[in-house]
Amino acid sequence: MAAWLQDVEDLTLKGQINVPYTWSVGEVGSRFLVALRDEEKILGNRCPSCNTVYVPPRKNCGSCFKDIDDNQWAELGPEGVVTAFTIVRYDYPLQPAKAPFAYAIIKLDGADVGFVHLIRQGLEKLRNGVRVKALFKEERTGHILDIDSFVLLEA
Amino acid sequence: MEKIAIVGVAQTKYERRKKGEIFYDMVYEVTTKAMEDAGYTLDDIDNVITVSNDFWDGRTISCMAVQEVAGAHDKNVSTVEGDGAFGAFYGAMRVLGGFKTTLVVTHSKGSEGDSKVITNAMFDPVYHRALGLDAISSSALQAQAYMEKYGITEEQCAMVSVKNHGNAKNNPCAQLPMNITVEDVMRSRKIADPLKLLDCSPVSDGAAAIIIADKDSAKKARNTPVWIKGIAHCSDAYFLGDRDLADPRALKDAAARAYAMAGITRPRDEIDVVELYDAFSYMEPLWLEGMGFCNQGDGGRMIEKGISVKGGSLPVNPSGGVLSAHPVLTAGLARIIESTLQLRGEADERQVPGARTALAHGINGPCGQSHCVWILGRE
Ligand SMILES: [Zn+2]
Q: What is the three-class DSSP state of B32?
């Protein structure tokens, strides 16, 4: 090892990349988010080929590789069943809730795929199979968090 | 498939923080060492694949910054943004496509960015990112779905962590060699149920490289070539809710194709050692099921029976696995490198006696959305 290496002071450089984006959410996504905002409704849509009801809705079905046309919309939930969950014990700035809170995969009534969202309360009663219901925010902006969270329904 | 081989391998020591070394230094280190291992000079390398990720590196087109030190000056060079096992897959395809030798090099420094912020960004911005999901919390959902469905216990998962950290004691490159007990894992800090601290892989820095050669070029190599018998990858749906997280369909498909290519019909009998991507302890039994080493739901019992320990009938992750060092992107290549060393009989204290056929595995995307399976052999 070269002698100078022994007492070199290793410096670091702090930096951050902040890039603003304006993502199009697409026509199908827009209809979904507008329904959350204006009607407190969760919309999905059905693949005409395999009959899978997707939520969030899709413009086409990845497994059939077919278009999902306009008249296949379905109103789902607002209740559903928890099929997987985790109680999160750590905080970091991008989480919309303070730990402990839960993420859950919820099979909304009428849907064939899971919907990922938050559960804030009643964590001790959380089990796969429990029924939950979407709680909408008062102020809605056309965003996935227009659903504040899902709340457990009493058995 | 034409005969192609891995003729040179190199990896850095994996560490929590490589403060004195920049990507450039790490890539140079493993590139030169892989060539030395193969007994090749730069003239023997006719094309290069680099593997990097812009978010982890904190610069766009991150591949461009390491090309000279990857030996790619004035050469055909291409890039894979994903796990190293997939980068190596592309490298193998290039040799099959007519190049004589491909050098594949991966680097990453988990210590320099923020793994939660970076892995949050792998999710769809409209529906999932705003929920704050990251690699840990999404994997915790998969762990819960899997363990609940099949009655896999936290203790069985803890045994994976005990085994792999113990195996790491025999691996000079591993970051976290540890003597721990199931009790230690069970009592470690809760992170996202059912995952506890010792169920999770660490933040790591490291780089790795391999050289893949055609049959004629392999003859010129200094070491015994390790032949690529079968390779395949397959991807599942992007949205977590579209998948059955307890059923690694993509892995089953990739494994079946790799086995078919390698002529393997009874993987449990024909494969001697497995190096798989255990970013979390639950992944080892789940991936073993997907690879067909046991029936679906039997992964926990397979661990409990001690089949996968050093000295067991199917040693899994003798290197210590990803639980003992998780340089993102590099980790899949590290599985291939350990398999290569095992087949060469150069794995020292961790050598699986008489290993002739190995399976190496890498994953990409949330909860193992896609899987890459390698079957390597001495003959
Ligand atoms: Zn369909």
A: helix
Transcribe A86-136 into DSSP letters. Answer: EEE----TT-SSPSSEEEEEEEETT-SS-EEEEE-S-GGG--TT-EEEEEE
* Residue B129 exposure: Cα atoms within 13 Å on the Cβ side: 11
> What do you get for the CA distance between the two ends of chain A, in Å?
69
Q: List, edge to edge, every strand of the sheet that includes A42-46.
A: A53-54, A42-46, A73-76
How far apart (Å, rounded) are the C-alpha atoms in residues A98 and A103? 12
**CB A145 to CB B130 under 8 A?**
yes
Asked whether the whole model's pTM tops 0.95, one would answer yes
Distance in angstroms (rounded) separating the CA atoms of residues B127 and B137: 16
Domain B4-114+203-218 in this protein, CATH class: alpha beta
- Give A 75-114 residues with CB within 8 A of chain B: 83-90, 92-97, 103-105, 113-114
Ligand 1 centroid–CA A60 distance in Å is 8
Hey, where are the domains in chain A?
Answer: 25-152
- B164 sits in which H/E element: helix B154-167
Give the closest-approach CA distance of B103 to chain A in angstroms.
28
| Distance between CA atoms of residues B318 and B304, nearest Å | 17
**Cβ neighbours for B196, distance < 8 A, ≥ 6 positions apart:** B154, B185, B186, B188, B189, B190
- Distance, CA A61 to ligand 1 centroid (Å)? 5
Question: Which residues on chain A are in Cβ contact (under 8 Å) with B192?
Answer: 86-90
For residue B164, count other CB atoms closer than 10 A to its CB.
Answer: 28
Q: Which residues partner with B280 through β-bridges?
A: B200
A113 and B143 in contact by Cβ < 8 A? no
Q: How many CB pairs under 8 A join A and B?
A: 109
Q: Over the stretch B116-163, which tens digit does the pLDDT of each residue have?
A: 999 999 999 999 999 999 999 999 999 999 999 999 999 999 999 999
Pairing of strands B47-51, B101-109: parallel
What pLDDT is recorded for position A90? 98
Kindly list the residues from chain B whose CB atom is less than 8 angstroms away from the CB atom of residue A17.
58
Complex ipTM above 0.85? yes
State yes or no: pLDDT of B174 exceeds 80. yes
